[in-house]
From TrEMBL:
Homodimer. Residues 22-106, 125-206 form the PhoU domain. Belongs to the PhoU family. One of its GO terms (cellular component) is cytoplasm. Its main location: cytoplasm. The keyword Cytoplasm applies. PANTHER family: PHOSPHATE-SPECIFIC TRANSPORT SYSTEM ACCESSORY PROTEIN PHOU. Keywords: Coiled coil, Cytoplasm, Phosphate transport, Transport. GO terms for biological process: intracellular phosphate ion homeostasis; negative regulation of phosphate metabolic process; phosphate ion transport. Residues 45-72 form a coiled coil. This is Phosphate-specific transport system accessory protein PhoU. It comes from Corynebacterium amycolatum. Plays a role in the regulation of phosphate uptake. It is found in: Cytoplasm. The gene is phoU.
Amino acid sequence: MERMRTVYREQMDNLAHSLIVMCDRVGSMHKLANKALFEADLVSAETVLSQIDSLEDLRQDAEQRAFELLAREAPVAGDLRQIVSGLYIVEDISRMGALSVHIANVARRRHPNKALPEPVEGFFREMAAVSEQMTHETRQVLIDYNVDQALALDKTDDSIDDIHQHLFTLTNDDNWPHTPAQTVDVTLLSRFYERYADHAVEVAARIVYLATGYKRDVYLDKLEDERDQRSFNQRLQALERHLRM
């Protein structure tokens, strides 16, 4: 029985590790896609595209591990949450990889020219830097199951949302000076970065559920209720001290 339990725990650990491996692969692809975009680097773009099949292999391997655990071990409680959350996380990380491929495709299509008009390149460099940071933080969350760090990713995502909205406003302005093709590229690329960040936030939300047993919004409401209760207790204690004086 002890041997079976050890094997089961190793299988659970392998599933968790496979998610980290996927995140590492996507992080590498995303950095190369950014390089391809900002430097009109065809080699980087082609390298990203060449990794599509290997990322799909990682996705299928992780899913297979999860399905086998569900079918053979009948997990309950925390283990069941880990497996089900793992299946959702696999899909989110896979989508992050697909969005990196989309970015690389835009860069390849416009080569040897840059896809971005110079006046908006700075906005995209900021989105790229933040999204790379979010990938790193997502990896750490997958390792540590740190709830506070997972919740912080949602706030980091706000900066990308703000830039995405600003670019939307610029491209719809009557004074937007660039060509229809450039407008399409800016619109699509902004959306790709925005969705990439959203999927990182979703991974973090799954970790919150895995670590606490609560969905992110429910957990945040619970924290707020606890803060309100502590504040009430402090005011009540202060009043009691005042009345005893």
